[in-house]
UniProtKB/TrEMBL annotation:
<dbReference type="GO" id="GO:0003899">
    <property type="term" value="F:DNA-directed RNA polymerase activity"/>
</dbReference>
<feature type="domain" description="RNA polymerase Rpb2">
    <location>
        <begin position="35"/>
        <end position="76"/>
    </location>
</feature>
<dbReference type="InterPro" id="IPR007642">
    <property type="entry name" value="RNA_pol_Rpb2_2"/>
</dbReference>
<dbReference type="GO" id="GO:0006351">
    <property type="term" value="P:DNA-templated transcription"/>
</dbReference>
<dbReference type="InterPro" id="IPR037034">
    <property type="entry name" value="RNA_pol_Rpb2_2_sf"/>
</dbReference>
<protein>
    <recommendedName>
        <fullName>RNA polymerase Rpb2 domain-containing protein</fullName>
    </recommendedName>
</protein>
<dbReference type="Pfam" id="PF04561">
    <property type="entry name" value="RNA_pol_Rpb2_2"/>
</dbReference>
<dbReference type="GO" id="GO:0003677">
    <property type="term" value="F:DNA binding"/>
</dbReference>
């Protein structure tokens, strides 16, 4: 068995503007966070400081549905 270093590619350095220059063109890195299909629950506070519960339904195909439950247990589409 022989140990060998293999060069897979170059990673450009980021400049002070938060961009990289590749072949003379400014490039930026955009993060994309994907959520798996399912139901996600979260809680937060409204403008009066009252707890609001939110449920997000993400389907395999198509868009997502978001529902909000207020303190009177009413369900609102968001």
């Amino acid at each position: 068995m022989q140990e060998q270093t293999v060069l897979l590619g170059n990673i450009p350095l980021m400049n002070s503007l938060g961009t990289s220059i590749v072949n003379g063109i400014y490039r930026i890195v955009i993060n994309q966070i994907l959520q798996s299909p399912g139901i996600y629950y979260s809680t937060g506070l409204d403008h009066n400081g009252i707890s609001v519960y939110t449920g997000t339904i993400i389907s395999d195909w198509g868009g997502r549905s978001e529902l909000e439950i207020d303190r009177k247990e009413r369900i609102w589409p968001v």
